[in-house]
Amino acid sequence: MEEIGHRTTKFEFSSIGDERREFVFWLLQQCLADGIDPTDVFEYAAQEYLAERLSTPLQFAEHLNRAFTDAYRMGADQVMRDIVEETISVGFDDLDARLSRIGYNPKALADLTDTRLPEIRRFLKGQLDTDRTDELSTLMRKAGLPI
Questions:
Q1: Average of pLDDT values for 101-114?
Q2: What is the three-state SS of 58-71?
Q3: In a domain, 7, yes or no
Q4: Which residues touch 61 (CB under 8 Å, ≥6 apart)?
Q5: Distance of alpha carbon 27 from alpha carbon 38, whole angstroms
Q6: In CATH, what number is assigned to the domain containing residue 49?
Q7: How many domains, the chain?
Q8: 14-44 burial, b for 16+ CB within 10 Å, e for fewer?
Q9: Rounded CA separation 83/93 (Å)
C-alpha cells in the first residue's frame, strides 16, 4: 500500500460556487466546434436555469447531455429552457435525493441515527410527526449532514 501511495496524486476539489454560470458557458464552448457561439445552440435562459439548479461538474455534464439528446429527438434547432426543465427530475432537490448523492441512503441513515428503516423512510417523505422529525433532524445535523 505504501508503494501505491507514493504513485498517487492528491488534490482538493473545491465547489464551483458562484462561478456556475461561467462553468456552463465554458463547458458549452469546449463541446462545440470553433466559431459556434454557445447561445446559438443553447438558449441563455436554459443556461441560467442549469446554473441555478445544479452544482457539480458531473451534474452539469449529465444534464447538458440529456438536454442535447432531448432537443435532437424533438427536432429543435436550439435547446430551450423548457427542454432543460424536463431533463431535471421533479424530486432532484428532495432531502432523500440530496442525502443519497453524498452517500447516505435510508439504511445508512437508520444506522447513523439508531432508528428503524421504516421510520427513516417516513422521515424522508415528510410523514413523521413534528417532534420526531425535529429529533432526527438534530441527530443528523450533529453528525454533520447538510439538512
A1: 89
A2: HHHHHHHHHHHHHH
A3: no
A4: 27
A5: 9
A6: 1.10.8.60
A7: 2
A8: eebeeebeebbbebbeeeeeeeeebeebbbe
A9: 18
